[in-house]
Amino acid sequence: MVENYKLNPNLTKTAAVAEWLKQRIDWQIYLPNQRVPSVRKLSKLMGISSFTVVQAYEQLVATNVLVAKPSSGYYVNEQTRLVPPNRDKKVAPKQPVIDTRWLVQQVSSDIPHHRSPGVGTLPRDWIRNDKMEWAIRQVTQQADGFIYDYSAVQGYLPLRQQLVQQLNVLGMQTYTDNVMTTAGISHAITMIAQLLTEVGDTVMVDGPGWFWLSSCLQQQGLNVVAVERDHQGPDIEQMQQLFETYHPKLYLTNSVLHNPTSYNLHPARAHQVLNLIHQYDAYIFEG
Q1: Percentage of residues in the chain having pLDDT higher than 90
Q2: pLDDT value for 158
Q3: For residue 212, is it within any domain?
Q4: What is the CA radius of gyration of the chain?
Q5: Domain assignment of residue 66, yes or no
Q6: Which of 147, 177, 180, 198 is the most interior residue, by most CB within 10 Å?
Q7: Are residues 278 and 224 part of one domain?
Q8: How much is the average pLDDT of 196-218?
Q9: Which of 253, 245, 243 is nearest to 277 (CA)?
Q10: 133 inside domain
Q11: Does pLDDT of 59 surpass 60?
Q12: What is the Cα–Cα distance from 252 to 283, expressed in whole angstroms?
């Protein structure tokens, strides 16, 4: 067979290289534990920079498609599932287990900030300025006990009181004893998943979604399925199919400025989602 080294023009070069290699793994051209073309060889055959190939390979390492072996090259992960040649039956798109350790290493690397748009941190000059320093001083002067002593298990009381007031404005009546703050969204997701699910349960997430989410849930022994999301919200027809097939206990999403698409959930689509949640007796986590 004459190999075709043309890339998908509708994708970025990095994404196109990753797609090209994943297709050949699916076609069993490259088998588990087999070495894939070297960075130098593939960049020459495709007429692209070696940096682009490295970026594509590292993305595939992060999603456990490839394994990087020092001084040897890149190999197909032995756990990579071979795709049968005949796939007439539509299968729910399951999320690959992501190596979050590798991703954290990349976030903490010395790559310049202007070349790391997805790093998740703000530019230093946005944070280190006179206004921010003044605000920090004001907070520390007013909250000595909060800073130096143990706080309530449920979180900082004045903050919970403010949250209750805001919820009341939105028509959600509650009390401070019913509110708990966490150290961040990661902490909240981990806690909720441990409370509402058991090992072997299925949970549903958005696709595309936050890379850390699927990995965190899978590491807790949960099965993760993804519902495709467009500019109005999740695909309702596919969501119903996933409920019927996998019976997920929990759906995790964020309706406003969805990560990474930045789309908001349309009210009509939100109503359809809630109907499915009630119909299949599932929980919904709004992040």
Answers
A1: 37
A2: 86
A3: yes
A4: 23
A5: yes
A6: 180
A7: yes
A8: 86
A9: 243
A10: no
A11: yes
A12: 9
On whether both 155 and 239 belong to a single domain, the answer is no
Sheet holding 202-207, edge to edge: 233-234, 223-230, 202-207, 250-253, 283-286
Give the per-residue pLDDT at 101: 60
Count of the separate structural domains present in the chain: 3
Q: Which two tokens stand for residue 267?
A: 């009210």
Which has the closest alpha carbon to 174: 161, 184, 191, 156? 161
For residues 189 and 282, membership in a common domain is answered with: yes
β-pair partners for 286 = 253
Reported as a single tens digit per residue, the pLDDT across 66-96 is 999 988 899 999 876 544 544 444 444 444 5
Same domain, 165 and 242: no
Query: Is there a single domain that holds both residue 253 and residue 276?
Result: yes
As a three-state string, the secondary structure of 249-278 is CEEEECCCCCCCCCCCCCHHHHHHHHHHHH
pLDDT, tens digit (0-9, with 9 covering 90-100), for 136-189: 888 777 766 666 777 778 888 888 999 999 999 988 899 999 999 998 888 898
Q: DSSP readout, 159-218?
A: HHHHHHHHHHHTT----GGG----SSHHHHHHHHHHHH--TT-EEEEEES--HHHHHHHH
How many angstroms separate the first and last alpha carbons of the chain? 49
210 and 158: one domain? no
Q: How many helices and strands in the chain, by DSSP H and E?
A: 12, 7
